[in-house]
Prior knowledge:
Layout: H1 7-15, H2 20-31, E1 40-45, H3 53-60, E2 61-68, H4 71-75, E3 83-87, E4 100-106, H5 115-125, E5 126-135, H6 154-161, H7 165-174, E6 178-179, E7 184-186, H8 194-201, H9 214-230, E8 241-247
Parallel strand pairs: 1-2, 1-4, 2-3, 4-5
Antiparallel strand pairs: 5-8, 6-8, 7-8
Amino acid sequence: MVDYDGRMSSVYVAGRRISPAEVARWTAGFAAYAPERRPLDVLDLGSGTGRFTPGLAAEFGGRVYGVEPADRMREAAAPAPGVSYLKGSAEDIPLPEASVDVVLMFLTFHHWTDPLQGLREVCRVLRPGGVALLRTQFSDLMPDLFWYRYFPSAQEVDAAMYCSVDEARALAVEAGLLPDAHVVRITGEDPRTVRATYERLSLRALSTFEHLPEAEMEAGFARFAADVEQDPDRVLPVHDATMLVLRRPS
Length: 250
């Protein structure tokens, strides 16, 4: 279990920062799978430091609730019009039944203690016809990220955190949600240079690094730093992200 009230809370904002343009591209991408009417009320489940929460309010025009269990992560979230940050978890969402039109779960699913109960809660708070966007990795669709080459066990560690597509779909159906037929490929990320990627990763704001041996991290970052000196401005490819679209029946 990653302690987001500990060291991670002190590095998360800098290590996971995304630009306003990236937020706008992500939220526009999410909007393509949401009901067309506006305004829509949104739950940002596992909102962390509110990277997306204000952008969701701007995109969808309704009330947005950022639900986050870690006190220090919520404290770091900037206030914004239409946004409320609430203490809670996927397994115990502090909202009434049928109170939101969209639920965003952005790289939080693998942290849930009880994924089935969490998805049942998502189904409960969604209005009929509402949509849940499960942006996560899947163990059978793992990307080959550039930085894995520096940390030999990182890809295996990451894959072990996630369930497969079929497992996620089965949990969603058991919880009362209807998955769309295909896994969505989506991204709002800017391309980044080798140097920029190193600077972000060296803060160790990814949960992967909480599970790697210290010696492997030290050696890996040393090799990475040497490559930055050789080719700092090379732009790295952007990998599409994976997302399941889940719907509450009307």
